[in-house]
């Protein structure tokens, strides 16, 4: 190509560049410009990724349920004796300490019963002491009768020896018949005396046995009266109804002047120790173990998050302990996923007690594994 030709193709400087700007822009490629379709697709991908990250990914290291409630070992306060309420030291929602006197029943009838039982016991004890004295006296009579038998038996033996001697003399002609007859009469008299003493001794021994039996009966009567006194004192102590646990008063249905019966629920005490009963599906329990970390969110306080631990798993589904357990051996069978109660305790019971009460609905989350650090914001 010649220089002349090149000069012809070179644009003239006199032609302004501003007039050619649209042509230049049209010839340039469309760098940095995005179509609406690509923006929408990108946004959808980001949304799907975010939803999956938030809802699906945490399932690898945690399980959760909103079928969970605050629970406690609520203590029902019931009277053990029938009486009128004379004094009430608590009110609705009052805080009570352990062994604090809450309700005073009218004690007068029970105090009278204690006094009667005490008097009966003293009477029974006096009767037992009297029988003991009779036994000691009878023992002396038995000993005396035995001594009389021994003395009269010795006299009988001597009389028998005299009779034998006089009989021997009489057979040889050295003795007299009169002396022999006198010795024989003396033997008979001594023998009768011994028999009389023996009869008296036997009667004394028989009375001694009767007294020993009466002593046993008197001892039993004393023990029975002691038991009656103990029962009367126990019933008197039942007129003072104290708190079995520390906590808060709830469900109070008693007022001063009410006549209460044994077994009637007067009020309940919600203890200071609360826990969570979370009903997880059986398919969620594969990796759940006692001791695993949990978080609890309370419906009544959306911003509140409490920490806890898995305490235990119930050995049986909830339906197993229902009033009418399912019977799958008859009829058409429909498989239903069962739920198992899991007990969760709080790391800080005091904090939990400050915010929540039994019966409140919560959402429980159990961490079956430790999540990656970069995903900790999903906890």
UniProtKB/TrEMBL annotation:
<feature type="coiled-coil region">
    <location>
        <begin position="114"/>
        <end position="141"/>
    </location>
</feature>
<feature type="domain" description="p-hydroxybenzoic acid efflux pump subunit AaeA-like beta-barrel">
    <location>
        <begin position="273"/>
        <end position="351"/>
    </location>
</feature>
<keyword id="KW-0175">Coiled coil</keyword>
<keyword id="KW-0472">Membrane</keyword>
<feature type="transmembrane region" description="Helical">
    <location>
        <begin position="39"/>
        <end position="57"/>
    </location>
</feature>
<dbReference type="Pfam" id="PF25963">
    <property type="entry name" value="Beta-barrel_AAEA"/>
</dbReference>
<protein>
    <submittedName>
        <fullName>Membrane fusion protein, multidrug efflux system</fullName>
    </submittedName>
</protein>
<dbReference type="Pfam" id="PF25917">
    <property type="entry name" value="BSH_RND"/>
</dbReference>
<dbReference type="InterPro" id="IPR050739">
    <property type="entry name" value="MFP"/>
</dbReference>
<keyword id="KW-1133">Transmembrane helix</keyword>
<dbReference type="GO" id="GO:0055085">
    <property type="term" value="P:transmembrane transport"/>
</dbReference>
<dbReference type="InterPro" id="IPR058625">
    <property type="entry name" value="MdtA-like_BSH"/>
</dbReference>
<dbReference type="InterPro" id="IPR058634">
    <property type="entry name" value="AaeA-lik-b-barrel"/>
</dbReference>
<keyword id="KW-0812">Transmembrane</keyword>
<feature type="domain" description="Multidrug resistance protein MdtA-like barrel-sandwich hybrid">
    <location>
        <begin position="74"/>
        <end position="268"/>
    </location>
</feature>
């Amino acid at each position: 190509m010649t220089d002349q030709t090149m000069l012809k193709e070179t644009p003239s400087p006199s032609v302004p560049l501003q007039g050619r700007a649209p042509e230049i822009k049209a010839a340039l490629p469309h760098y940095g410009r995005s179509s609406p379709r690509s923006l929408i697709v990108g946004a959808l991908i980001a949304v799907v990724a975010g939803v999956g990250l938030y809802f699906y990914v945490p399932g690898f290291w945690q399980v959760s349920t909103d079928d969970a409630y605050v629970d406690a070992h609520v203590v029902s306060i019931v009277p053990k004796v029938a009486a009128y309420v004379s004094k009430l030291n608590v009110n609705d929602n009052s805080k009570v300490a352990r062994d604090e006197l809450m309700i005073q029943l009218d004690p007068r009838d029970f105090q009278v019963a204690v006094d009667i039982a005490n008097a009966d016991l003293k009477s029974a004890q006096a009767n037992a002491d009297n029988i003991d004295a009779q036994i000691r006296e009878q023992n002396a009579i038995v000993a005396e009768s035995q001594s009389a038998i021994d003395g009269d038996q010795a006299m009988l033996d001597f009389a028998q020896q005299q009779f034998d001697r006089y009989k021997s003399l009489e057979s040889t002609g050295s003795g007299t018949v009169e002396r022999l007859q006198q010795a024989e009469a003396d033997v008979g008299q001594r023998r009768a005396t011994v028999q009389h003493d023996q009869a008296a001794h036997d009667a004394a021994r028989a009375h001694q046995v009767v007294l020993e039996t009466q002593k046993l009966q008197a001892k039993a009567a004393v023990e029975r009266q002691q038991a009656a006194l103990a029962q009367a004192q126990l019933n008197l102590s039942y007129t003072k109804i104290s708190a079995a646990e520390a906590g808060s008063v709830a469900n109070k249905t008693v007022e001063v002047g009410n006549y209460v019966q044994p077994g009637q629920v007067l009020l309940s005490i919600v203890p200071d120790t609360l826990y969570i009963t979370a009903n997880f599906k059986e398919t969620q329990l594969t990796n759940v173990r006692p001791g695993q970390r949990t978080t609890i969110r309370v419906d009544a306080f959306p911003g509140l998050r409490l920490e806890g631990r898995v305490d235990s798993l119930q050995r049986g589904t909830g339906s197993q302990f229902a009033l009418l357990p399912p019977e799958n051996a008859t009829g058409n069978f429909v498989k239903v996923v069962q739920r198992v109660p899991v007990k969760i305790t709080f790391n800080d019971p005091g904090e939990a007690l400050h915010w929540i009460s039994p019966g409140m609905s919560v959402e429980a989350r159990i961490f079956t594994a430790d999540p990656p650090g970069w995903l900790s914001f999903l906890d």
